[in-house]
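Long-time lurker, first post. I've been practising inverse folding by hand and with some scripts of my own, and I keep getting stuck on stretches where the structure tokens seem ambiguous. Below is the full token string for one chain I'm working on. Before anyone asks, I'm not after the true native sequence, just a reasonable design that respects the backbone. If someone could post their per-position residues I'd love to compare against what I wrote down in my notebook.
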């Protein structure tokens, strides 16, 4: 005959080890989930810190560029005019080249020299909290012949070279007079020629005024190589 007391003791002996095993397993599962969740949290926290750091750096960079652009307003005056539509400066010295030639006539040299000195002085006087490099683009342009003149089509390609040579003449003239922008560590100077094309050209009766130079100053903020 079965002993009720003995059966109850056997059931208790079976229950408690099983209960302990179950709780141990649950604890292990919860521990794994906690560790995994903690890792995800830390990874996310690191990503947020990195994103916040990048946003802060971008905001500081934008602030510096805005400050530089305000400082570049000092260029405006006798020698430069800012074109807000195309976001660039136009050299106001009314240089007139002989047709098809790139030599700068003596009459324009004093004003061009002073314009170059003004440009360099303004760039060197700008104070910023971060390193800054200026990309200075000197662009030469050419005027078209009257409408219908066959030379417009015939000389379309050669005027790119002509306007480039005109910009090069200006750069060489500055260099010969002690304005060697290439020696300035924070200035990178590029010359180009847009020929009969380019944005912001004069039209109609002012076509002849396209024999000119354009100056673009693009600030690049950040660590310099």
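-- Answer (accepted) --
I ran through it position by position. Result:
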């Amino acid at each position: 005959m079965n002993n009720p007391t003995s059966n109850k003791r056997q059931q208790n002996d079976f229950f408690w080890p099983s209960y302990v095993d179950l709780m141990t397993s649950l604890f292990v599962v919860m521990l794994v989930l906690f560790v995994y969740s903690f890792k995800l949290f830390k990874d996310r926290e690191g990503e947020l810190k990195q994103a916040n750091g990048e946003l802060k750096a971008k905001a500081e960079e934008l602030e510096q560029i805005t400050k530089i652009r305000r400082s570049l307003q000092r260029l405006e005056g006798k020698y430069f005019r800012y074109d807000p539509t195309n976001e660039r400066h136009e050299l106001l010295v009314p240089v007139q080249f002989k047709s098809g030639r790139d030599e700068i006539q003596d009459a324009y040299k004093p004003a061009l020299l002073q314009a170059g000195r003004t440009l360099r002085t303004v760039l060197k006087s700008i104070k910023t909290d971060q390193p800054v490099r200026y990309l200075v683009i000197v662009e030469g342009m050419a005027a078209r012949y009257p409408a219908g003149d066959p030379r417009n089509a015939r000389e379309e390609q050669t005027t790119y070279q002509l306007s480039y040579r005109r910009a090069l003449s200006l750069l060489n003239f500055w260099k010969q007079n002690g304005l060697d922008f290439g020696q300035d560590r924070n200035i990178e100077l590029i010359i180009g020629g847009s020929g009969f094309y380019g944005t912001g050209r004069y039209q109609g009766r002012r076509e002849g005024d396209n024999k000119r130079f354009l100056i673009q100053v693009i600030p690049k903020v950040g660590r310099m190589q």
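A couple of notes from the structure itself: Helices lie at 4-71, 109-125, 151-154, 158-176. The CA atoms of residues 143 and 207 lie 6 Å apart. Happy to go over any region you disagree with.
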